[in-house]
C-alpha cells in the first residue's frame, strides 16, 4: 500500500540519489556518476524483463522502462523509498516491491532477461549470498550488470554506509566464482573540456534527454586523453555477464552543470583555505618566537647556575654571612 504522503514519510540519506527536481539542490555531480550506468545498459533492455535490485528512489527503474523494456521490477529494502518510487517514478511498465536483496522471495527462479544492480554490493552484510541470489533470478542466458565503487581511492565521498570495501581482484573473484565468466570495465571520474556545435532548439534538453536521445554517432570526432588509470585504480568497477565483449563500447557522461558546481565549491573553499594558511603561518611564527624565548631562558638559567657555583659567589655568600653576624648593614 502506497503512503498518502511519500515525501513526508521518506527521509533520504547521502546514499539515496534523488534528482534535482525532487530535492531542490544541485545533484548534477551525482547525476554524472549514477546515470551513466543506466545509460550504459539502455541498449540491452529493449523488449526485455529487467530487475533493478536496490533501486532506491526509482529514477533508474523508470529510466529503464523509458528505454523500451517490456517490464521492469524495482526492488529496495526501504519501504519508504519504494513508496516514493511508486509515486514519483511510476511507469506503465514498472513495478516496485520491498525486499531484502539477499533473497527476494516474491520473485521466481530464472525470471529475468537482464538484472542491474548498481552500487549495492558494498552495503550488504553478505555480498556472496547476494551474488548467488542474482544468479538464481537470472535466466541461464540472461545478462547481468553489477557495479561496485573502489573505496580505496582518494575521494571525499567514501560513504559511512558501506559495510565492505573491494579492491578490483576481490570484486572480480566474487563475480567469477559465481558466474564463471564476465567482462569487467572501469568507471573513471575525470575533468573534460568539449568543443561542440550548437544544438538545434528543437532538441533542447528535458530530464535525462541526453540518455533518452543519445548523441549522434561520432559526435566527438577527435579526442585528447591525457591520462586514465588501469582498472585496479578506477573509481568504480562494472561486471557484465553474458554479453559479448564486441557489443561493449566506451561511454562518457557529460555535465557542464557538474563542473560549474565544483567551481562554486572551489570558489567558496579557496578563501577559507587562504585564511587557514595565514593562521597556520601565524601559529608557526608564534611557535618560533616561543622557542627563541625558551632558549634565552635556558641560557640565563645556565649562567645563573654557573655563577652560583663559582668561587667568587661562594666568597660573596660567606662575606654577607659575616656582616650579618657582626651586625653590619648588608645589601644583597
From TrEMBL:
InterPro entries for the chain: Methyltransf_11, SAM-dependent_MTases_sf
Annotated keywords: Coiled coil
The UniProt record lists the keyword Coiled coil: yes
Domain Methyltransferase type: from-to ranges: 51-145
Coiled-coil ranges from the UniProt annotation: 276-310
SUPFAM superfamilies: S-adenosyl-L-methionine-dependent methyltransferases
Entry's Gene Ontology molecular function annotations: S-adenosylmethionine-dependent methyltransferase activity
Pfam families, per the entry: Methyltransf_11
Glycoprotein recorded as keyword: no
Domain of life: Bacteria
Protein name per the record: Methyltransferase type 11 domain-containing protein
Amino acid at each position: 500500500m502506497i503512503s498518502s504522503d511519500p515525501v513526508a514519510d521518506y527521509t533520504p540519506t547521502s546514499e539515496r540519489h534523488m534528482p534535482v527536481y525532487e530535492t531542490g539542490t544541485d545533484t548534477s555531480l551525482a547525476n554524472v556518476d549514477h546515470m551513466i550506468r543506466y545509460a550504459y545498459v539502455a541498449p540491452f533492455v529493449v523488449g526485455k524483463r529487467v530487475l533493478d535490485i536496490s533501486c532506491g528512489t526509482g529514477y533508474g527503474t523508470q529510466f529503464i522502462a523509458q528505454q523500451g523494456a517490456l517490464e521492469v521490477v524495482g526492488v529496495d529494502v526501504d519501504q519508504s523509498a519504494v513508496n516514493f518510487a511508486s509515486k514519483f517514478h511510476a511507469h506503465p511498465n514498472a513495478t516496485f516491491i520491498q525486499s531484502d536483496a539477499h533473497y527476494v522471495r516474491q520473485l521466481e527462479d530464472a525470471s529475468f532477461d537482464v538484472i542491474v544492480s548498481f552500487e549495492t554490493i558494498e552495503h550488504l552484510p553478505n555480498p556472496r549470498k547476494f551474488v548467488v541470489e542474482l544468479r538464481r533470478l537470472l535466466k541461464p542466458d540472461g545478462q547481468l550488470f553489477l557495479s561496485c565503487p573502489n573505496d580505496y581511492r582518494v575521494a571525499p565521498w567514501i560513504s559511512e554506509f558501506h559495510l565492505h570495501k573491494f579492491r578490483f581482484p576481490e570484486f572480480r573473484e566474487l563475480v567469477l566464482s559465481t558466474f564463471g565468466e564476465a567482462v569487467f570495465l572501469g568507471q573513471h571520474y575525470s575533468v573534460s573540456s568539449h568543443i561542440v556545435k550548437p544544438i538545434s532548439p528543437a532538441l533542447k534538453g528535458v530530464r535525462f534527454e541526453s540518455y533518452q536521445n543519445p548523441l549522434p554517432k561520432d559526435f566527438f570526432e577527435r579526442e585528447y586523453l591525457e591520462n586514465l588509470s588501469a582498472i585496479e585504480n578506477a573509481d568504480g568497477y562494472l561486471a557484465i555477464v553474458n554479453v559479448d565483449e564486441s557489443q561493449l563500447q566506451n561511454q562518457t557522461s557529460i555535465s557542464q552543470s557538474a563542473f560549474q558546481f565544483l567551481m562554486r565549491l572551489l570558489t567558496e573553499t579557496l578563501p577559507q583555505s587562504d585564511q587557514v594558511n595565514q593562521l597556520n603561518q601565524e601559529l608557526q611564527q608564534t611557535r618560533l618566537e616561543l622557542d627563541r624565548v625558551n632558549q634565552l631562558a635556558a641560557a640565563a638559567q645556565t649562567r645563573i647556575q654557573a655563577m652560583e657555583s663559582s668561587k667568587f659567589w661562594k666568597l660573596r655568600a660567606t662575606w654577607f654571612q659575616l656582616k650579618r653576624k657582626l651586625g653590619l648593614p648588608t645589601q644583597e
